[in-house]
Design goal:
Distance between the termini: 118 Å
Number of domains: 4
Pfam family, one: RIBIOP_C
Number of helices: 14
Number of strands: 31
CATH superfamily of the largest domain: P-loop containing nucleotide triphosphate hydrolases
Organism: Tritrichomonas foetus
Keywords: Coiled coil
InterPro entries: AARP2CN, Bms1/Tsr1, BMS1_TSR1_C
GO molecular function: GTP binding; GTPase activity; U3 snoRNA binding
Radius of gyration: 34 Å
CATH architecture of the largest domain: 3-Layer(aba) Sandwich
Strand content: 25-35%
Strand order of the largest sheet: 19-22-15-24-23-17-18-31
Largest sheet: 8 strands, antiparallel
């Protein structure tokens, strides 16, 4: 009988693979999850993004043209004296300036020159750094005022550099001639060539001697469009022209013209030197208590952990582990493993002679802190017990590739700071939330702020002639975190943990930063000193910044503030690992091929046993390890990958992670100001 396969049952093949059956079902309309949208092509997405950018630019340009006009907010104009005898307050007396509101500390009004006029809020900048910074952050236009036949002085050069570091507004250069004598054209060309070295955007120098020059200056001022600065264009800001303190209900009323972005009445606002405040009312809009942004950081909240100890990772957990290492070492014979010929070491007299020779060399080779060969060399004496002094340090096979848990042994102050799981997304959402504000930019604004009992005294300490500015805070910008800012040192060498003043966007803070290398690795080497013209990263605890901002660094010397460096916010990340390195150095007093006997690195046998697993390296790029101790005075045998040289220096690198401490506090007005 033949086999007939055609009569055999054949089932339908299942060709769907491993796909689930519910994939073929139609999705429900009300099903939870992301909404289904039609996919757009790359060209459509690019056109949509370009259209959004174009609309934003047109809206910003429209608002910029309104600034200074009859229907728009006045231009904030800062008058900066750049020559020795330039008189900024007397500059305004030349024009027929008419204040709009009498009694304001910083009035706005109309500047008239001939048939031209322009609405401005003028501010004569004195020769002080703090007022220069306050006006520079809020000004639309900076007038560089020169006196005829006088060059740019040191103060003017420093002021221009400082304004460039925080974001230079649109600048207009003016050469005034109080006597009425015309300014020669050759002199104007020389001024322009000199100024364009620092400010290439300044294309023209305006003379100011006759009435025609006054009219030309007002016309030029009225048609000059303010320059947008990235770090404050998405943030509401306002120059406070006047304020009224109401002690009865603990409020203060501030007046001014809102600029930048919309103001949300639920957000927190900050005023440099005074603090962060809630809004009680803004142009009749009253915030809801449930929708207020949380004010998490408050003055004095972290006083209990100012001096908290930092428990860094430890290599050996207890002294019992040291004893166990010692016992295990006694059971192992390392002489046969390394092929070391030590027939003469059985003679104790020779060991004593070598020890005496090493001690004589130690007297000659004195350790001097100023003459250390390596910047991270650890200076110690023979009485130091290194296994106790350096318990928090560890050895790394490779600084770049060896693993290090970033959440290991965090200090107590890190329980108070905030880590953003996705900072880019959080920042984008915070900036987008600003578009829902109730107060339009360009409007005259009256804001009522809630203040505490202690804040009332602070408002009474404001010195005369100071420019107060208000900035709106994005959500989460009152949370403490770790800011990592770039730092380029323009002054003398500065040490880490030295107290300096920074102007970080709208924040004025005293900090004690940890300087570290600017690398792309996961671990960053701690810098004890930052030399002149050396770049670095400054890590410190401060309120978060949702957008990048410029950072200016100052140092107080003999009661005066000196501008020492510039930078910007790089990351907002408490997980940045700043690793401190120390180097133990020793002297090879006897070499045999690749083997050597080293002294002056340790002074007892127990320290050698404790650190014997850490690798060695030399000044001449050799690598090695500890073999065994010799005697009880800290001598040991070492083996290297190449022939050891007696004039070389044997080194051991040890590392520990360091953390910024809670030593940041805001700048405030003093009683004697």
């Amino acid at each position: 009988m033949k086999h007939r396969s055609t009569f055999k049952q054949k089932n339908k093949k299942h060709k769907s693979g491993h796909q689930p059956k519910n994939q073929f079902k139609d999705p429900k309309v009300n099903a939870p999850g992301a909404s289904i949208q039609n996919e757009k092509g790359q060209k459509d997405r690019r056109n949509q993004a370009a259209s959004a950018r174009r609309d934003n630019k047109m809206e910003a340009a429209k608002l910029a043209k309104l600034i200074g006009s009859k229907n728009g907010p006045p231009k904030v104009v800062g008058i900066l004296p750049c020559s020795a005898n330039a008189d900024a307050p007397g500059f305004l007396n030349i024009f027929n300036f008419q204040p709009e509101v009498e009694g304001f500390m910083i009035p706005s009004g109309t500047l008239v020159g001939g048939q031209f006029q322009c609405r401005i809020t003028p501010f004569a900048i004195p020769r002080t750094i703090d007022v220069l910074i306050d006006v520079g952050k809020i000004a639309d236009i900076i007038i560089l005022l020169f006196l005829k036949d006088e060059p740019l002085d040191d103060w003017g050069a420093m002021a221009i550099s400082l304004l460039k570091s925080i974001g230079m507004p649109q600048a207009i250069a003016v050469v005034a001639s109080p006597s009425g004598e015309p300014v020669p054209r050759d002199s104007l060309v020389n001024y322009r060539n000199y100024i364009q070295k620092d400010l290439p955007d300044v294309e023209r120098i305006l003379p100011l001697a006759t009435n025609d020059d006054l009219a030309q200056f007002v016309r030029f001022l009225s048609v000059t469009t303010p320059k947008s600065i990235s770090w404050k264009e998405n943030r509401p800001n306002m120059l406070i022209q006047n304020f009224i303190v109401n002690p009865g209900n603990n409020t203060v009323e501030i007046f001014g013209y809102l600029k930048g972005a919309r103001l949300n009445v639920h957000q927190v606002v900050t005023i440099p030197y005074l603090g962060d405040f809630y809004i009680a009312e803004a142009n009749g809009a009253i915030p809801s208590e449930d929708l207020r942004h949380p004010l998490i950081y408050e003055q004095g909240e972290n006083d209990d952990i100012m001096n908290a100890d930092i428990h860094a990772p430890q290599t050996v957990e207890s002294y019992e582990s040291i004893d166990q290492i010692k016992n295990d070492f006694d059971k192992v014979n390392l002489e046969d493993n390394y092929g070391y010929n030590d027939g003469d070491e059985q003679n104790l007299d020779e060991d004593d002679r070598e020890a005496q020779l090493a001690e004589e060399q130690a007297e000659v080779w004195r350790r001097n802190q100023e003459d250390l060969e390596f910047p991270d060399e650890f200076d110690y004496n023979g009485n130091t017990i290194l296994r106790e002094r350096l318990r928090r340090y560890r050895g790394l096979k490779s600084f770049n590739s060896s693993p290090w848990n970033q959440y290991e042994s965090l200090p107590p102050q890190y329980a108070r700071i905030f880590e953003f799981s996705n900072f880019a997304r959080t920042s984008e959402a915070a900036v987008a939330e600003q578009d829902k504000g109730e107060i339009e930019p360009g409007t005259r604004t009256k804001i009522t702020l809630l203040i505490g009992d202690n804040d009332i005294n602070d408002w009474g300490r404001i010195p005369d002639g100071r420019a107060l500015t208000m900035f709106g805070l994005f959500r989460n910008e009152t949370r403490l975190t770790v800011l990592n800012a770039t730092f380029f040192n323009n002054g003398d060498p500065i040490r880490s943990k030295e107290q300096i003043l920074i102007i970080c966007g709208f924040r004025h803070l005293w900090i004690q930063p940890l300087f570290n290398e600017d690398t792309r690795a996961s671990k960053h080497l701690y810098l004890r000193v930052v030399d002149h013209n050396q770049p670095a990263i400054a890590s410190f605890i401060a309120p978060a910044m949702m957008q990048g901002a410029p950072v200016s660094y100052f140092k107080e010397i003999d009661g005066s503030m000196y501008f020492i460096g510039t930078g910007s916010i790089k990351t907002v990340d408490p997980n940045r690992m700043v690793i401190k390195r120390i180097i133990l150095t020793g002297n090879p007093y006897r070499t045999i091929g690749r083997n050597a006997r080293v002294t002056m690195m340790f002074f007892n046998k127990e320290d050698i046993l404790y650190f014997r697993t850490v690798g060695l390296w030399t000044k001449n790029k050799r690598k090695g390890h500890i073999m065994e101790p010799i005697g009880l005075k800290g001598h040991f045998k070492a083996c290297f990958n190449e022939i050891a040289q007696p004039e070389d220096t044997v080194c051991m690198s040890l590392y520990k992670r360091v953390f910024p401490k809670m030593t940041t506090f805001p700048v405030a007005f003093l009683k004697d100001e």
